[in-house]
């Protein structure tokens, strides 16, 4: 497939997309049809499932919280599904604030999102380390996802791309693609949240990912040190990732 599409244009997962083609370490591009990121997979149509089967998808890593996964479970033929729950979810935090009587503004929601991304760096490092452990096992096609495929998945994608040597600018470009692709289901909106708050909650902003990356820089001295110290991805592991997921040199 000489020119694969980044978005797979699935009906039941609007944010399902390929990380292939980005220039990584030494200018070597990521292999296509190996690493996918997505929103949740519980609404896939039979045609969607057939597409994923044709790609040889073998592994799925579900970053949703336990209640999210229980509410919208899924199974895919031939795909091993692994739960790596990251909690508390930002939607749960928002609901808790609303139920306690807070009148949230868009600015409050931006701060909540930034707080959530900083928590990925520290509180949820073990889950992201586990995801890397799975990535290092083989190059069998895989997808990692959460509910919308934008925050937990967005941070995971950023770490994977950075570990493979993709530039920070391209990582941000990939992160922001959610705003072009993701379509929020009506049932996903927490009750009583004003529309301007939902507009922040269900989209991504550079400030969100930057909050995590700034925490990485401030607390670990850089992405490579964070990968090694917090996620168990040192130089040998990065070489292994490059061998698995980058095009061979030359």
TrEMBL record:
Superkingdom of the source species: Bacteria
Classification via InterPro entries: Prot-tyrosine_phosphatase-like (IPR029021), Tyr/Ser_Pase_IphP-type (IPR026893), Tyr_Pase_AS (IPR016130), Tyr_Pase_dom (IPR000387)
Pfam families recorded: Y_phosphatase3
Residue ranges constituting the Tyrosine specific protein phosphatases domain according to the UniProt record: 107-167
An example Gene Ontology molecular-function term: phosphoprotein phosphatase activity
Family per record: Belongs to the protein-tyrosine phosphatase family.
Official protein name in the record: Tyrosine-protein phosphatase
Organism whose genome encodes this protein: Rhodoferax sediminis
């Amino acid at each position: 497939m000489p020119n694969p599409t980044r978005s797979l244009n699935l009906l039941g997962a609007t944010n399902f997309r390929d990380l292939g083609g980005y220039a990584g370490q030494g200018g070597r591009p990521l292999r296509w049809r190996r690493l996918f990121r997505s929103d949740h997979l519980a609404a896939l149509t039979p045609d969607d499932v057939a597409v994923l089967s044709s790609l040889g998808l073998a592994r799925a890593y579900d970053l949703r919280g336990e209640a999210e996964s229980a509410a919208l479970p899924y199974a895919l033929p031939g795909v091993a599904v692994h739960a790596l729950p990251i909690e508390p979810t930002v939607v749960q935090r928002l609901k808790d604030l609303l139920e306690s009587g807070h009148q949230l503004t868009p600015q409050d929601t931006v701060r909540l999102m930034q707080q959530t991304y900083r928590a990925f760096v520290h509180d949820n490092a073990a889950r992201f380390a586990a995801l890397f452990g799975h990535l290092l096992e083989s190059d069998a096609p895989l997808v990692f996802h959460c509910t919308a495929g934008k925050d937990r998945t967005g941070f995971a994608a950023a770490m994977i791309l950075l570990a493979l040597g993709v530039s920070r600018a391209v990582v941000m470009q990939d992160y922001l693609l959610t705003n072009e692709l993701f379509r929020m289901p009506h049932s996903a909106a927490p009750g009583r949240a004003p529309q301007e708050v939902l507009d922040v909650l269900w989209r991504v902003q550079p400030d969100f990912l930057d909050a995590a990356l700034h925490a990485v820089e401030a607390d670990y001295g850089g992405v490579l040190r964070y990968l090694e110290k917090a996620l168990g991805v040192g130089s040998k592991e990065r070489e292994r990732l490059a061998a698995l997921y980058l095009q061979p040199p030359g």
